[in-house]
Design brief:
Strand order of the largest sheet: 9-8-7-10-11
Strand content: 15-25%
Number of helices: 11
Order of helices and strands: EEEHEEHEEEEHEHEHHHHHEEHEEH
Largest sheet: 5 strands, mixed
Structural class: alpha/beta
Number of strands: 15
Shape: elongated
Length: 399
């Protein structure tokens, strides 16, 4: 790994980089650790999840992908300072061995970053640099400001091809430290421009790539700025004295209300006596009143049953037909439909994504059905999202 690197676009703001084993580390220097030990992983997370719930879902999905238990996972949400406007909607994480990641807290310097975040980059530009790590050749790759990796050349090339297929081609590949073996062939096979200096980049209409110019310092591996508990504490603590004053005011107000409460209790007793007499006269035929609400409800139910007859129970076939019509309109195929009298209709369907699940729930509600979204999850070996709904007629759900 290089001991020191310079900014490509702004030499007046040169940034010094050192490895963890450097003899001395200055306060303005950034310590670079092997990027292969700290992969940056993209996760499919529900858009509306925030805070601790988002972290828990991300941890479970990352554990499923890595084949580990959630408590074994050490991760840092990837939120560069340039993305602070979307700080609550992050969808990428830096992950590493938990013990090793904890050991980085003792390192000095301005920040501790994966080495691939030290590459200069800009929108529409992929940066590639060959390095030696432990005597083995490695490639550092930056897929623009939001992604990167360090891997063996063959794996790096495979990742680049996969990114081309998924996200489309960048405007150019940038090799600031020389052309790594195999990069030229890949660029030629995919008709990609290959540049090695700023003049060539400017001719392509791209802004100059910069080192640490996209908020990478906010991704210091020694810290976890997005931890929900830390954020909650930072929000609550400034209000502790205000909250204490509010509690004291509430206590004073409650003491003032005691007199009024005692007066209300005497009025309640007189009302209760009058109510009991009214129930005995009209509903119990002079019998004792043990539970006025229950006894009046039973008497009214008997009157309604006698005058209107028993109510008609929900027809399961009619309910299934209504749900099937909605599924047909949404072009969704159910994996299971199950009806139980005590629970209603249970629907399990595989949908393309979480947004499709919300749309299906909205369509069912629009058809006059009460819908409870009980589960929504993605499975590693299957495409789409498996979603479970509990469905009942809206009039029954409101009873």
């Amino acid at each position: 790994m290089a001991k020191a690197r310079q900014s490509t676009a702004r030499p007046d703001e040169a940034q010094s980089f050192v490895s963890p084993g450097a003899v001395s580390v200055g306060a303005r220097q950034v310590v670079l650790v092997p990027g292969g030990a700290v992969p940056l992983i993209a996760l499919d997370l529900p858009e509306r999840l925030r805070g601790q719930a988002r972290e828990q879902v991300a941890r479970r999905r990352l554990a499923d992908r890595l084949g580990l238990r959630p408590e074994q996972i050490a991760m840092r949400p990837f939120v560069p300072s340039s993305n602070q406007g979307k700080a609550d909607a992050w969808d990428r994480v830096l992950t590493a061995d938990k013990g090793w990641l904890d050991s980085l807290r003792a390192l000095p310097g301005r920040a501790v970053l994966p080495d691939y975040l030290s590459l200069p980059t800009t929108e529409g530009l992929w940066t590639v640099q060959a390095i030696e790590e432990g005597g083995h050749p490695q490639w550092m790759v930056r897929f623009g400001p939001q992604d990167g990796l360090t891997a063996q050349p063959a794996l790096a090339l495979a990742a680049m091809r996969r990114a081309l297929a998924k996200d489309g081609a960048p405007k150019a590949l940038f090799a600031p430290a020389g052309l790594p073996d195999g990069l030229g062939d890949m660029a030629q096979s995919h008709d990609l421009a290959l540049v090695q200096n700023l003049d060539e980049i400017k001719r392509l209409g791209l802004s100059a790539p910069v080192v640490l110019g996209h908020g990478e310092l906010a991704c210091d591996l020694r810290k976890n700025p997005m931890a929900a508990r830390a954020r909650l504490a930072s929000r609550v603590l400034p209000w502790r004295w205000t909250a204490l004053a509010a509690v004291l005011a509430a206590a004073l107000w409650a003491s003032v209300q005691v007199v009024g409460l005692q007066r209300a209790q005497s009025q309640t007793r007189s009302i209760t006596q009058a109510t009991t007499a009214l129930v005995q006269q009209n509903f119990t035929g002079g019998g004792p009143v043990l539970d006025a609400r229950l006894q009046v409800s039973r008497a009214l139910a008997q009157m309604q049953s006698a005058s209107a007859g028993s109510t008609t129970a929900t027809d399961p076939l009619d309910l299934i037909h209504r749900v099937a019509e909605v599924l047909k309109g949404a072009r969704a195929t159910p994996d299971m439909l199950e009806y139980r009298a005590e629970e209603g209709l249970r629907l399990i369907a595989r949908l393309p994504d979480f947004a499709a699940a919300d749309k299906l729930a909205a369509a069912l509600r629009a058809d006059g059905l009460a819908v409870d979204l009980r589960d929504s999850r993605s499975e590693e070996d299957e495409t789409g999202v498996v979603t479970e709904f509990a469905i009942a007629p809206a009039d029954e759900a409101s009873q």
